[in-house]
Design a protein that fits this description.
The chain is mostly helical. Helices cover 50% and strands 5% of the residues. The protein has three domains: 2-235, no CATH class; 350-410, Muramoyl-pentapeptide Carboxypeptidase, domain 1; 417-471, no CATH class. The protein has 21 helices and seven strands. The strands form two sheets. The chain has a five-stranded antiparallel beta sheet. A hairpin with an 8-residue loop joins strand 6 and strand 7. The radius of gyration is 28 Å and the shape is globular.
């Protein structure tokens, strides 16, 4: 999970999410008082590091001359207001340039990739997909001192426990001799090398594929880094030769409430419900699978298999897993997906997401906190709200959904057909001819509403509303 957090931050930084957003902003200078506090912190932390097995000379050599990095503090303290929609993410992740570069790497490194596949039982193309997304095949994996970045984050304190754990791990890596402090470079958030491992992931999964006695995920040849990524996937249960996903067609008879990453069912179950591949073909029989709607009911449906979940162990995001899997396919020659996305439906900004969480919770749909991050609890709350209104329960946070939730919170929410039918029945019972109670507020119904409002002294607008339903005794 921690690898996920840092990998997501680093991916944003490299793709123009965090780093680009603030590249032009001024970074505050470190004050003398802060510099002095940091030196005291380094002296105090030395005891912690030594108590966890770090040799005094290793600590002293690594920390000598290390100062606070003001840019790291600035980046860590700022979260982007707006996030890219998945279709924009995939447009970049599986761009023609990235595909072409991946094919060149495969052509140049074919024997190495085949050896990695044979040793770890992980398809070579998914390893290339991870490499392509994490560092553009080694073109950019960050040039920050990992020790300095992690020490800065640990001193700053926003994620103190995590940063200290990673810093101790980084010191253990130095102590083992895999890399020097000078070459231990990475992102501002501490992710390292071609495959953007954080230190604890490096310790757990990095391998010496070249056999030179060091696990070097920074080397120009990238062999250790690619072997390490394959080992990571293998240790999480990768199944060689199985696809990670399929684009599917879901009939309307299937309740969208079922379409979540956690609702895994045998493929035979989905087939029995009428789900097919998007081209109409049969589903691959790969055991259990879930169906997700990464852009809501208006976007494509993606059936995710076992290997999709393994990629999400690397970075727990549907967009990332889909990007890695499809990039790998494209490198092997597959055509673009050419999916239809709801591009007119912009994603919510962070402030809007917090507002959505606040309003949903106030309405009785608890999101378990207000932080602007739409995790499983928030999506469950969205689904329950949607179901209560007869809307497709896809859990997708759109601008239209936010408007509907705000209307519900202020009592201005549009009525459902059943509520409109109740208004029609009540008007007819009072002698105001609203026509057949069909739940559609047509001209006849609106005229009856206006007549009722005029007769009883209400503001005349002829509109069916919650207030009108109340006035009629509903």
């Amino acid at each position: 999970m921690r690898k996920v957090l840092m990998s997501a931050l680093c991916a944003l930084a490299m793709s123009g999410g965090i780093g680009a957003a603030y590249a032009q902003s001024e970074t505050p200078e470190i004050t003398q008082a802060q510099a002095y506090e940091f030196e005291r912190w380094k002296a105090d932390f030395r005891a912690e590091a030594l108590a966890q097995g770090i040799a005094p000379q290793v600590y002293d050599n690594a920390m000598r001359g290390v100062t606070l990095n003001a840019k790291v503090i600035s980046l860590d303290g700022r979260q982007p207001e707006f996030s890219r929609p998945i279709w924009k993410y995939l447009e970049s992740a599986v761009s023609e340039t990235r595909v072409a570069n991946g094919r060149k790497k495969l052509a140049a490194m074919g024997p190495v990739m085949q050896a990695i596949q044979q040793r770890y039982g992980v398809d070579a193309q998914v390893v290339l997909g991870i490499w392509g997304l994490e560092s553009a095949y080694g073109a950019f994996y960050g040039d920050y001192s990992v020790i300095r970045s992690l020490a800065t984050l640990a001193w700053e304190g926003r994620r103190e426990k995590f940063a200290k754990e990673q810093l101790i791990s980084a010191l253990r890596i130095l102590q083992r001799g895999d890399i020097s402090a000078e070459r231990m470079r990475g992102s501002w958030a501490g992710a390292m090398g071609h495959t953007q491992f954080i230190p604890t992931s490096f310790e757990a999964y990095a391998v010496d594929f070249t056999g030179d006695g060091r696990r070097d995920i920074w080397s120009d040849d990238a062999h250790d880094a690619l072997g390490s990524a394959a080992n990571y996937l293998a240790r999480h249960g990768w199944r060689l030769g199985e696809p990670a996903y399929a684009i599917v067609r879901v009939p309307r008879s299937v309740d969208y409430f079922e379409l979540t990453a956690k609702n895994k069912k045998p493929v035979s179950y989905w087939a029995g419900r009428g789900v097919t591949r998007a081209d109409g073909g049969p589903l691959p029989n790969l055991g259990e699978a879930a169906i997700v709607l990464p852009a809501g009911a208006r976007g494509p449906a993606v059936m995710t298999f076992h290997n999709f979940g393994v990629i999400r162990k690397y970075n727990n995001a549907t967009s990332y897993a889909l990007g890695v899997a499809h990039l790998g396919e494209r490198i092997l020659g597959a055509p673009p997906l050419n999916l239809s996305w709801p591009e007119d439906d912009r994603p919510l900004g962070r402030t809007e997401r917090k507002t959505l969480q606040e309003r949903l919770t106030a309405l009785g749909f608890d999101t378990d906190g207000v932080d602007g991050i739409l995790g499983p609890n928030s999506r469950k709350a969205i689904r329950n709200f949607q179901r209560s209104r007869g809307l497709p329960a896809d859990g997708y946070a759109s601008e239209a959904l936010l408007t509907r939730v705000q209307q519900a919170a202020t009592g201005t929410e549009p009525l459902g057909r059943g509520q409109i039918a109740a208004i029609q029945n009540a008007l007819n019972a009072r002698g105001f001819d609203a026509g057949v109670a069909d739940g559609v507020a047509g001209p006849r119904t609106r005229a009856a509403i206006a007549a009722f409002q005029r007769a009883y002294g209400y503001q005349v607008d002829g509109q069916a509303s919650v207030g009108l339903l109340g006035a009629l005794g509903g």
